[in-house]
Here is the input.
Amino acid sequence: MGKFKEFLITEDIGLGDIGPRIDRFYNSSFLDSKIGGAFSTGSNAKESPTLGQADNMPDVSLAIPSVERTGRIVHLEIKRNPIYVRLSDGTEAHFSYDEYRRIEGKPEIGKTMTLIFQRHPEDKMQQASKIDKAMVL
Here is the structure.
């Protein structure tokens, strides 16, 4: 038991009987009903869900979702900063010079290119996404 909790339980002069009151409150069903098992006490340890996760909360995955787009290169502007590539499926990509050099294969108009983005598959917003990998087949 921690020294402060021990002090609260055994202190009689300045705090009165606050030690036993705190202990009763901590182990009461009233506190369990209010916090819903956020931390497990002796009385509700077996009923509580896994530490830090409530029953009604969905599982949260920390994996970054990705989307893969494949199409023929229909527009390529190499003499521009950033380098611009548009695929036949409407996907547009902008590359810095260093990113362009990391593309697997040589991009040319008419070749098939695959882009892998960090993006949720159901996200339909027009915002740019980070390109994880670019390959020319």
User: Anything to note?
Assistant: The radius of gyration is 30 Å.
